[in-house]
Every structure is written in C-alpha cells, then in structure tokens.
Specification:
Distance between the termini: 37 Å
Number of domains: 2
Number of strands: 11
Helix content: 40-55%
Order of helices and strands: EHEHEHEHEEHEEHEEHEHH
Strand content: 15-25%
CATH topology of the largest domain: Rossmann fold
Oligomer: single chain
CATH architecture of the largest domain: 3-Layer(aba) Sandwich
CATH class of the largest domain: Alpha Beta
Radius of gyration: 19 Å
C-alpha cells in the first residue's frame, strides 16, 4: 500500500508517518515542507497513492492569516487539481461546530467573516468544500483536540504540563467548568488509515466523544502535587460534546483517554 503524508513534520503527520512505516507492507512518501515549496510541480507528477493532507496552522493562525489560507486551501487546491492519487484524506477540525446546534457530521455550520477567530473555521470549511466539490475520492476528518507524546509547545495540554513541571503550579485562565474533547494521538493514528481505506462516509468526527473539564485536569495535576489556581472572573469556555456515532459504529471506540495517559505525559515532560 502506498501512502503520502503531506505535513509529516507536524505532530499528527509525523506520528502517522512513523506508524505506517513500521508496517513493512507499506510504502510511505513524506516530502518535507521545503520539498513541497521548491519541488511541488515534480511531486504532482508522482503516483502519490493514498494521501493524508496534514498540513495546517492551528494555535498561531491569527498571527499568520495568509499562511493559514495557503495551508488549508491554496496548496490543497493544487493537489486536488493536478495531483495523481488514489484517495485524499483532509484533516479538518471539530472547531467548525462552534455555534452549531448539533455536532453530527451533517450539521449546518455557522461562521462569521467579521469574527477574527473564525478565519480558521472558514479556511477549514473552504478546504472541506473544495474536497467535496473536486470529484476526487475524498475523506474529511474533523479532529478534536489531539494530545500525546511529541506534542507541540502551543498544544494546550503541553502548556499545562510544562507550567506544572517548571513551577509546581498551574494557573487556569478559564473557569473550572470549561470543557472540551481531548483525543489521543494513539487513537487518531489508528483510525486515520481505516477511514481512508474503508470509510463508508465522506466526513468523520474523530474525537473521544466525551468532554474533559479544567476541573478534571486540575484534579489529575493535584494528584501529582501541583497547586491549582484560576484567574479572577475566569470565563467559562465549553464546547459541545462531539458526536462520534459514525466513527465508533464503523471502527470501534477510543482505546485511550487523557485520564489513562496523563501521568505518563506528565512524567515525560518532567524528564
């Protein structure tokens, strides 16, 4: 089986690349960012097999709006229009459900161009729409907040753990009841090839299906002797629970969780 990982230098793309490479029956092509920038025309002539489009900006999208559009839409357009591939799986985000009345994959979604925070949502949705309109064999994966080993510094869980290790305390800027979905990269990497090769639908939520609150994380930190505090008047920021029925009916439940992996992550950062 031939796979191409675009964005293999990132957290998810790198983990996916390593996992697929361990399966000796696979051929994995993972061009670097520099290769893509300098050699895209040649890359588009290759037989790319099953493509995972993992390129994107997340935490720093507000500071780099043009790069965000380039990553989520413009480069994708070139791959879809000119690339030679069997299928393409586009990594999107469950952030697109902000303001929606349901988190089912078929939900009507709400975005506002005047909201600077919606640039990310709009760009991901444009990428999704382009995929769905391309006539290519497409899968869209809307990812929740992914955690695991080799997390990037701007990942929220990484920042919390780093603060805990460096100072022995964590100060939350949002309220204890603030909550969102955290999914293990272990499960994400297990699900992605299954969705790409065997998924019956075009769009999948890839999430744990359960929200974890700041208070839950604080409790895990306190078990490691970390002092917890909250900003005065800290706002509550809670995300709706992500519907994972489509995912779990086809590919089974998550096998890990933040609760299961937390101590290992903490001790890994603490080394």
């Amino acid at each position: 089986m031939k796979f191409t990982i675009l964005g293999a230098g990132g957290f998810i793309g790198g983990q996916l690349c390593n996992t697929l490479n361990k399966q000796k029956t696979n051929t994995v092509y993972a061009p670097s960012r520099q290769d893509i920038m300098l050699n895209l025309n040649n890359i588009l002539t290759y037989d790319l097999g099953h493509v995972f489009y993992c390129i994107g900006l997340t935490a720093n999208f507000r500071d780099h709006p043009f790069n965000t559009i380039e990553a989520h839409v413009c480069l994708l357009k070139q791959i879809l229009e000119q690339g030679c591939f069997e299928s393409l799986t586009y990594l999107s985000s469950t952030r697109v459900y902000e303001g929606a009345t349901t988190t089912q994959e078929s939900a009507a979604l709400q975005v506002s161009p005047s909201n600077p925070g919606h640039l990310y949502n709009l760009s991901k949705l444009m990428g999704e729409s382009l995929c769905l309109s391309s006539g290519c064999k497409i899968k869209i994966v809307r990812l929740a907040n992914v955690f695991g080993s080799n997390m990037r510094p701007k990942n929220f869980i990484y920042q919390i753990l780093q603060e805990a290790v460096s100072s022995g305390k964590v100060h939350f800027l949002t309220a204890p009841q603030s909550a969102k979905d955290y999914v293990s990269v272990y499960d994400v990497i297990r699900w992605l090839p299954q969705i790409a090769l065997h998924g019956k639908h075009m769009i999948y939520n890839v999430a744990s299906g359960k929200n974890i609150s700041n208070a839950d994380i604080a409790s895990l930190l306190e078990q490691n002797g970390i002092a917890i505090s909250y900003a005065m008047g800290a706002p509550e920021w809670s995300f709706p629970v992500i519907d994972t029925n489509r995912l779990t009916q086809e590919f089974g439940d998550a096998q890990s969780s933040l609760f299961i992996e937390f101590n290992d992550l903490y001790h890994c950062v603490n080394q």
